[in-house]
UniProtKB/TrEMBL annotation:
This is Retropepsin-like aspartic endopeptidase domain-containing protein. SUPFAM superfamilies: Acid proteases. It comes from Halomonas beimenensis. The lineage of its organism: Bacteria, Pseudomonadati, Pseudomonadota, Gammaproteobacteria, Oceanospirillales. Residues 258-288 are annotated as: Disordered. Residues 123-260 form the Retropepsin-like aspartic endopeptidase domain. Residues 269-279 have a biased composition (Acidic residues). InterPro entries: Asp_endopeptidase, Peptidase_aspartic_dom_sf. PANTHER family: ATP-DEPENDENT ZINC PROTEASE DOMAIN-CONTAINING PROTEIN-RELATED, ZN_PROTEASE DOMAIN-CONTAINING PROTEIN.
């Protein structure tokens, strides 16, 4: 009996001691962090300058991005306009084709090779052509991929004669182009057969079409030429498939199948002077 009393007393004291310990911990003051050091005026100013610099850099980046976006928009607008020009040109071509009477399709047996070559002149990819009305020979490129023929011309000037449209021009030649030298720089006059409209990325252009007598080997034909400046190209004359149709066939592996035509040298004249215009001319001629 006497031995169990101390054990009971200890058991009763343990909860009391634990409560006192917890209460002491709760009453102990908490350690608070010390406040930051106050900013000095120079430190505050430096921090503000840093914020301003970051804000200015951000604004500059935004302005640069807006400028790039604006440039991309302008380029895209220009591309859209160019596509619009091309589409309008295609629409005009389609309208012209729809206005032309449709020919019924004819089915014919493929002729033998000898029949296809019969009555046709063989020409190479480059040939010498003669222009009797002008009085000179020129080197021509023959291209069945081109529709019309073209003659290099500069200083093209339109004028009227007897109520008809005429054009005055000089041959557009480079220094190494073969030509009767007396013709180089001379004025040439011819009536305008019609005008063609050329649609390019830079806009539309109207070019005159004239008719000149042309010789190529045994061929002697009146050919329609579109006048345009070809001095940036290799040949002053281009012959298209309209000229080749039914009269010639191309061997692209050959050049100068036919000899160069000869022309008498005309008397010297002032090639740079103003052309003399009279009403007696009825066909294309070289005007000195």
């Amino acid at each position: 009996m006497s031995s169990s009393m101390p054990i009971r007393s200890v058991a009763l004291l343990l909860p009391i001691a634990g409560g006192l310990l917890l209460g002491g911990c709760a009453l102990a003051p908490l350690e608070r962090p010390s406040p930051p050091d106050p900013l000095t005026p120079s430190a505050f100013e430096a921090r503000m300058e840093g914020l301003e610099a970051r804000l200015a850099a951000h604004c500059a980046d935004q302005r640069e991005a807006l400028a790039r976006h604006r440039e991309e928009q302008l380029a895209l607008t220009a591309d859209v306009r160019e596509v619009g020009y091309l589409l309008r040109g295609l629409e005009d071509d389609l309208d012209r084709l729809s206005d032309e009477p449709q020919r019924p399709a004819t089915v014919a047996d493929c002729p033998a090779e000898d029949e296809r070559l019969a009555n046709k002149t063989l020409v190479g990819r480059n040939e010498w052509v003669g222009l009797p009305d002008v009085g000179t020979f020129l080197e021509a490129r023959i291209d069945s991929g081109a529709n019309t023929s073209s003659l290099s011309a500069t200083e093209i000037t339109a004028f009227e004669r007897d109520g008809e449209d005429w054009v005055r021009f000089k041959l557009g030649l480079n220094e190494d182009d073969a030509v009767i030298e007396a013709i180089r720089g001379r004025w040439i006059e011819a009536p305008v057969e019609r005008r063609v409209r050329i649609v390019q990325a830079t806009g539309e252009e109207s070019r005159p079409v004239i008719r000149l007598l042309m010789s190529l080997g045994p061929i002697r034909e009146n050919v329609e030429f579109t006048l345009s400046d070809r001095t940036h190209l290799d040949f002053p004359v281009l012959l298209g498939r309209r000229f080749l149709m039914d009269i010639a066939i191309i061997d692209v592996a050959r050049r100068h199948v036919h000899p160069r035509p000869s022309f008498p040298t005309p008397p010297d004249a002032d090639a740079e002077g103003e052309p003399e215009t009279t009403d007696e001319a009825a066909s294309p001629r070289s005007a000195g």
